[in-house]
């Protein structure tokens, strides 16, 4: 069982006036946002400065989360636990001013080896008062390129918890080892330096805040902020009826045993102002590379809980999770153990979170949301650039897809999945300028949103043509487990993938997972993201809204008539008489 426990400030430090608390609250947010901005400005790879696949944060001297810059929600637990692991490894007596600690250990961060995590201690008047941290995605960390992996050793270089810098002295041996083990060392080391910029920015700005208001006031304000977050979480948890709620779903497969479903089962228990999320029945770890570490399993529960109880409470801090208990054995797909592979760590957790929402949908219909596309829908391509004859590696996306509808609004369309929060898709113009590709089309998918009184969001379709030979790899799931509707809403279209060779499309793939498929000049691939499930019976949707959806291309005239039971005139207006007849028959 896991419960977030944060160390309180000394009793005398709580007497901080409300104005100072709010100034400190916004100051903490400003620190992490500036860390984020400086990382984006100095990073070398699109996946950081455009896709924003990173998170930065401030942590207490014990490693508890104070503030996380808005980024990937799934890093919410991994960063804190990584800071704590570094504290345990070195001991506080062996952490000194100027030190920078680093690791990319997948079983510590909970994610894949691409996530290098740098941490710097913050000292004030000789006292350790906290840590700054940055976890960011490196495009390449060595290992097998494009193929499915079956153990961690084939996924790239592993850096245990070590010191990148002791005092002001950089560990050049470590830098040389990293450079020799990655394919694009100048980009990897550029991103490394960008991460150092981020955490040193955080240290400087945090100290300025402390020097301005004094450490006792800042410490007391942080304690009050965490207490307030806890109180708000408890108050909103109480509004969920007591009970035991269960739900299940599945993942298509692990990429090796094609068609063998991977079960996802969750149980949520609400008792007064506390919630327990039991992930004991989530599938055992799989041979394919879709596993993630235990910190990600905890993050699944925490992300779902925060969305339900304190979605707009900032900064994100550990106080929000004090009322939450997580039960999760080791050895599942969200608590994998060495040496199980972790390269595509982010895919299965999205459906775990979706399933937690599904479990609670009957209890809180006014806060429930239907299933969403739950995948990055993100291809990796690599080849030799005709411009300079050098290897290029690029990830294109995330594509964005449909989110589920709620009781009072349609789902959003072409939006990144829940675990990826603030990440962005790749601008087509930048991709075409930097790599030998042509984006033939990028558009919404008609009829991909689940029908309902409130319609699910639409997925997207992207066709990319090779202007020079390259290989494409996708790890897309949720083709067969379609985003579900709730309270009478219909399921949405699932994710998909197709390949065009010599002008002929192959859309018969058993799933959407392809590994190192070679495309020649003029060939193309097509990615399809799923929609979001609907909410409520489609026949209850306002006919005028259905007609508007048809005019916008969101819904076809055929679906309008057959599913929504709305007939349209030749001019696209509602045919009231025929609609009344259709809905009478349906009733």
List strands and helices in order, with pairings.
Blueprint: E1 2-3, H1 18-42, H2 46-49, E2 54-59, E3 65-68, H3 75-90, E4 100-103, H4 106-109, E5 115-124, E6 127-137, E7 162-166, E8 169-170, H5 172-180, H6 185-213, H7 215-238, E9 243-251, E10 262-271, E11 274-278, H8 294-309, E12 324-327, H9 347-360, E13 380-384, E14 391-395, H10 428-434, E15 437-444, E16 460-466, E17 470-476, E18 496-501, E19 504-506, E20 512-519, E21 524-528, H11 543-552, H12 557-562, H13 576-586
Parallel strand pairs: 11-12
Antiparallel strand pairs: 1-12, 2-3, 2-6, 4-5, 4-7, 5-6, 7-8, 9-10, 10-11, 13-14, 13-17, 15-16, 16-21, 17-20, 18-19, 18-21
Brief rundown of the structure:
This protein is of the alpha+beta class and 587 residues long. It has helices spanning 18-42, 46-49, 75-90, 106-109, 172-180, 185-213, 215-238, 294-309, 347-360, 428-434, 543-552, 557-562, 576-586; strands at 2-3, 54-59, 65-68, 100-103, 115-124, 127-137, 162-166, 169-170, 243-251, 262-271, 274-278, 324-327, 380-384, 391-395, 437-444, 460-466, 470-476, 496-501, 504-506, 512-519, 524-528. It has a seven-stranded antiparallel sheet, sandwiched between helices. Strands 1-12-11-10-9 form a five-stranded mixed sheet. The chain has a five-stranded antiparallel sheet with strand order 15-16-21-18-19, covered by helices on one side.
